[in-house]
TrEMBL record:
This is GSCFA family protein. It comes from the Bacteria. InterPro entries: GSCFA, SGNH_hydro_sf. GO terms for molecular function: hydrolase activity, acting on ester bonds. Residues 22-256 form the GSCFA domain.
Length: 314
């Protein structure tokens, strides 16, 4: 008896291993995958400007990073006792203007350096809905709780998304001809836009992404389809009934691992996971001989792993 439809998956060529260098950009689901890669100590740059939901925000980051177009005082503003920038998530906001500008410009440099040496770039698109400043026409990455009357909300056309993706890929490949680019659509539903509007948004993203895939310049990982078709139950969602819960994230991660991570890395991943669990261990008594012996064994495991992979930090 078959009780679940299965999304067909094939192992990717040029899979990830511990020699890979990864860039992960995009919506909050990019953070879910990025956090897993970080947990297993793969080398990865994850969303240096924070979560970026729509394609034009990601395109803007890549473009400014590669062209090294630095941020200036005119591009930040003071609101709710913090300095903000429309191009970045509020996670980067600061009480000091100089600190925000420093974070933005160091983020641009870091992004360029990582893209130039990356083996893989993963881009996750969350929504096709954007907010545009009425005064300047600028598309913003984050509204920062600025009154909605300041913005014009619009749905990006499929053609505009396709063009944005083409520009992204061209910029990346101009500085890194060997990089593997992987596109995916976030399974997180943006229900604040409306139920029908969210479906329309995802349809635009998926249609645009597959036009790009046909050119052969990128590949696709079906995270959206896995959530919609294999995890068709609210027990796989968080309390908000919008975001995938830990069980769903782990499920999609296992699928991602099967497709994108080389089996030669599995043993090392298990060793890293064992260390991570050891570091999370909370003893009844920190002064006991048993715990001291445990810490010594754990330290030896870390030392041995770092001899092979010096970049790993615990």
């Amino acid at each position: 008896m078959k009780l679940q439809t299965q999304v067909p998956l094939n192992k990717a060529t040029n899979q990830i291993d511990y020699s890979s260098q990864l860039v992960v950009l995009g919506s909050c689901f990019a953070n879910n995958i990025g956090d897993k890669l970080a947990y297993y100590k793969f080398r990865a740059l994850q969303n240096p400007f924070g979560i970026l939901f729509h394609p034009l925000a990601i395109e803007n980051l890549i473009s400014r990073a590669i062209q090294q177009k630095q941020y200036t005082e005119e591009e930040v503003f003071f609101l709710n006792e913090r300095w903000q920038c429309y191009d970045a998530h509020s996670d980067l906001s600061s009480v000091r203007k100089e600190e925000l500008l420093g974070s933005l410009n160091s983020g641009l440099l870091e992004t360029k350096l990582w893209i130039a040496k990356a083996s893989h770039v993963f881009i996750t698109l969350g929504t096709a809905w954007t907010y545009q400043l009425k005064e300047s026409g600028k598309e913003v990455a984050n509204c920062h709780k600025v009154p909605q009357m300041v913005f014009k909300k619009q749905l990006l056309s499929i053609d505009r998304i396709v063009q944005g993706l083409k520009d992204m890929l061209h910029l990346i490949q101009a500085v890194n001809t060997k990089v593997k680019i992987v596109l995916t659509v976030s399974p997180v539903r943006h229900l604040k836009d409306g139920f029908v509007e969210n479906q329309q948004s995802k349809a635009h993203l998926i249609s645009a992404v597959h036009q790009i895939i046909k050119t052969g310049n990128a590949t696709y990982f079906p995270s959206y389809e896995l959530m919609m078709d294999e995890l068709r139950d609210y027990r796989f969602y968080g309390n908000d009934l919008v975001h995938p819960n830990d069980l769903a994230v782990n499920y999609i991660w296992e699928k991602f691992k099967t497709v994108w991570i080389s089996e030669t890395s599995y043993k090392t991943m298990d060793e890293v996971a064992a260390i991570q669990k050891g570091l999370d261990h909370r003893p009844f008594s920190q002064e006991s001989e048993k715990h001291k012996e445990f810490l010594k064994t754990l330290g030896n495991k870390i030392t041995n792993l770092q001899k092979e992979y010096p970049f790993m930090k615990f």
